[in-house]
């Protein structure tokens, strides 16, 4: 019987589980960003980080297993190993690659949503600070300072 480390196919199921969980986490993150449920994002970020760490560990384990089988640790080595496996393993690998691409796209969209929130928050802060005034210069060449900002009273 071969050890688990020399059988990369054992890890593909775990990698798929982690990739699906990461995709689901990214979808939840997108939904929270759309609804502006910012408080939930910290929990999702912690979960997302743990899933990425798990996926990195599984990928490293797969690389060790490929090397133990005498394969190169790259796409060509994985393809060579898959050529010796049942269709189910090849399907699992294709699904894993598709999930990785889907995750990249979800992450890109979430980044755009975050950028939008940051922009809106920055604009709101400018309004509160009285920003956005255009510079007006008097006859003496000095900038005329007009105070049209909003007063903020604490208390």
TrEMBL record:
Pfam families assigned to the protein according to its UniProt record, in alphabetical order: FlgN
Record carries keyword Plastid: no
SUPFAM superfamilies given in the database record: FlgN-like
Keywords attached to this entry: Bacterial flagellum biogenesis, Cell projection, Cilium, Flagellum
GO BP: any one term: bacterial-type flagellum assembly
InterPro entries per record: FlgN-like, FlgN-like_sf
Protein family according to the UniProt entry: Belongs to the FlgN family.
Function: Required for the efficient initiation of filament assembly.
Protein name: Flagellar protein FlgN
Lineage of the species this protein comes from: Bacteria, Pseudomonadati, Pseudomonadota, Betaproteobacteria, Burkholderiales
């Amino acid at each position: 019987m071969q050890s688990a480390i020399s059988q990369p196919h054992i890890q593909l199921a775990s990698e798929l589980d982690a990739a699906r969980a990461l995709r689901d986490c990214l979808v939840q993150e997108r939904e929270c960003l759309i609804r502006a449920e910012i408080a939930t994002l910290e929990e999702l970020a912690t979960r997302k980080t743990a899933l990425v760490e798990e996926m990195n560990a599984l990928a490293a384990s797969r690389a060790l297993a490929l090397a133990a089988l005498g394969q190169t640790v790259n796409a060509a080595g994985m393809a060579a190993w898959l050529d010796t496996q049942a269709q189910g393993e090849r399907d699992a690998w294709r699904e894993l690659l598709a999930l990785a691409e889907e995750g990249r796209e979800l992450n890109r969209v979430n980044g755009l949503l975050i950028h939008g929130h940051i922009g809106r928050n920055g604009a709101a802060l400018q309004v509160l600070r009285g920003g956005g005034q255009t510079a007006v210069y008097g006859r003496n060449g000095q900038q005329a300072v007009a105070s049209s900002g909003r007063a903020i009273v604490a208390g």
